[in-house]
Amino acid sequence: MLVDVDLSLSAYANAKKYYDHKRSAEKKEQKTIEAADKAMKSAEKKTQQTLKEVQTVTTIQKARKVYWFEKFLWFISSENYLIIAGRDQQQNEIIVKRYFRAGDIYVHADLHGATSCVIKNPSGT
């Protein structure tokens, strides 16, 4: 380490100047270490908070079981009947061939391209 000696000052004054400089450097070093610790604690706290938020989001996003009729147009009537309709010609055929049962009601408009509707009757009567 290089020490500048001022010849116009006494030995005591040069030593005092050197030790004052050393003391201020130690204070700056201590403040830097404290600031770094504070920044690390803040970053850790922020990371923990982010992890908690991500965990809550993932637990919220657990999906319910998708019902078989949700791939079609559907609704539940005020009398609690399930009404399903096809979105296109292929779905219309699937509804009629696969899901139409005895006791269900089939509804279709007399227009080309109209959707097929099935009113599901759970009691079968």
UniProtKB/TrEMBL annotation:
InterPro entries xrefs: NFACT_RNA-bd, RQC_Subunit_NEMF
Coiled coil (UniProt feature): 26-53
UniProt keyword annotation of Acyltransferase present: no
All copies of domain NFACT RNA-binding, residue ranges: 71-124
GO molecular function terms attached to this record: ribosomal large subunit binding; tRNA binding
UniProt-listed Pfam families: NFACT-R_1
Keyword annotations from UniProtKB, A to Z: Coiled coil
GO biological process: rescue of stalled ribosome; ribosome-associated ubiquitin-dependent protein catabolic process
Domain of life, per lineage: Eukaryota
GO terms for cellular component: RQC complex
Protein name, as recorded: NFACT RNA-binding domain-containing protein
Annotated source species: Monopterus albus (Swamp eel)
Lineage of origin: Eukaryota, Metazoa, Chordata, Craniata, Vertebrata
